[in-house]
Amino acid sequence: METRQQHKSSSSNILKVVVALLGIGILGLGYYTYDMYNEYTATKQDLESQKEQLINDLQELEVNYTQAIEEKKEVADQLTEAKTRIESLIDEIKKTKKINAGLIRKYKKEIAVLKAQRDELYKIADSLRLANQQLVIEKDSISQDLTRQKQYADTLLNKNEELSKVINKAKILYPTNLVATGVKIRSSGKIIETSRHKRAQQIRVCFTIPQNDILDYGNQKFYVKVVNPEGTTIGSNDVINVDDNQLMISAMQEVVYDNKALDVCIFVKPEDKEKEIIKGEYLIEVYHNGNKVGTTNLLLK
Asked: pLDDT, tens digit, for every residue of 251-298?
């Protein structure tokens, strides 16, 4: 009887120990579970916080790229392409429900690459801008040089034209001592001057060709135009060009000119003496190289 009671007491004690151990185990498991939950919650919050930070960083980077596209025209295409990638990443992160540390690291690497790409594109744009500025400076310098050269060339051209005009003018022989007289030529060849129209058979025009060292040695042609009081050009009535106009002349004489002073006389013989050599004042003009080089008058009584 006593032994049975002792056995019951021993069983009761064991049960109490087991119950106590179970209680301790449950309490420990509960604490562990609670701690794990807190850690999970903290980790989740941290990941969500990092996710938001990623989005903020990308949005800030997007703003940078948008401004850069306006400012860095030289690399606008590359910047636009990178900006499109940023927009895609923002949308991708926002749609990610279960964020984890691996994804966080992946996106941070993407952001780092985009920032490095942005900085590199900035450098390229600045380098291109400096190069363009240098090209503009060089272009302006070349343009100024060309302008100066053109001005110099124009100046030389003008001087050459002026010099050419001077030389051409210098090649014109302006006679001196221009005198016109009525003359009668006897059968012996003797020439008698006269101031009476009835006795005059021809009009003689004499002048002196001056010395000219610029003109080339050789033959020179001089033309005489004699207009009687009625306005008729007497003589051969040949035609020459003067200032792009045709001019009727009375006579021509070609002389051998050696750059020294030379006396010349040209005789104008009328086609019809009775009609052409009349009383009154005559106008005499001398031409050389298409230019009028002298004028005088003759009065026949």
From this structure: 999 999 888 899 999 999 888 887 888 999 999 999 988 889 899 999
Burial-class residue 236 by CB neighbours within 10 Å (0-12, 13-18, 19+): middle
Q: Is 2 among the domain residues? A: no
* Dist CA 298 CA 279 (whole Å): 10
For the whole model, what pTM was predicted? Answer: 0.48
Domain count, the chain: 2
Question: What are the pLDDT digits (tens) for 211-262?
Answer: 888 777 888 889 999 999 999 898 888 888 877 788 888 899 999 988 889 9
Structural domain ending residue among the three candidates 170, 185, 217: 170
- Which residue is listed with tokens 């050269």? 149
CATH of the domain at 235: 2.60.40.2560
Domain that holds residue 269: 176-300
Q: Which of 145, 170, 195 is the last residue of a domain?
A: 170
